[in-house]
Design brief:
By secondary structure, this protein is α/β, with parallel strands linked by helices. Helices cover 22% and strands 35% of the residues. The longest helix has 20 residues.
Length: 263
Amino acid sequence: MGKKKIKIDSFNPYENRFPNRKLVTRDALLLIKQLRSDGYKVVVEPENKQPLQYLYKKGIADFFADPVNITLIGIPIAILTNVISNELQKLFDKDETLDKTNINIKIDNSTKTYNYLGIPQDKNNTKLIKKKRKDLKEGFDRCFEIKSPYDDLPTPVFLQHKPKIIGWCELWSDDDGLKSNMKIIDKVVKRRISQNRLNGISVTGIATKTECSICKSDFVYCEHIPGKKYKGEKCLNKIIESDYVESSIVKEPINSQCLIDYK
């Protein structure tokens, strides 16, 4: 008997600037890897020749920040929820602000949808997920159509990764890590930064080339789980190449070193 199949939709909210990318969030990728390691066949839709890449936000907790659609084919809902519900619940318990409606699970050929605990959702949940994705993509499309007025600051700056430009920046990496020069043009945000009410920076990136520390192969496609030990060695993911999408001003960066040096 062949493996049961789980389909997870890719989603590229930055299609306007980075077209023809098959993207999932880092958290969706970790779920995919967990399911693979448990023996399930996971397919990322659409099935095409584009390599799977993942989005990450450096400096902020972004757990399932983008809506995720999961479809089970020949698998009872209880199996998937047994795999993922415990880990998801731990994260939701820590942060009540996380949007639990962002995970939509559907059994193939069924009109019902479920949340991560296997509880049936409102019949309009699928429409809600589609609308969230559509609004997010269209918002970023509009933003990326705007050309920076500053030749040396080509990258837009957003507030909390929402599609509204509040400034422009330049991003680069050196031996000390990721660096950014930016100019904030939104007066309200500038005032909040000067009052130390906003003091964090978070960068969205697309990991285009990665390496697993255990098997030395592409981290996206191997079955090793980051943080888990294999024969005494902890699995780590190394991002070798990355495309930087945008920089955001955030209120509470998860990395205490991702702070604004306001001048």
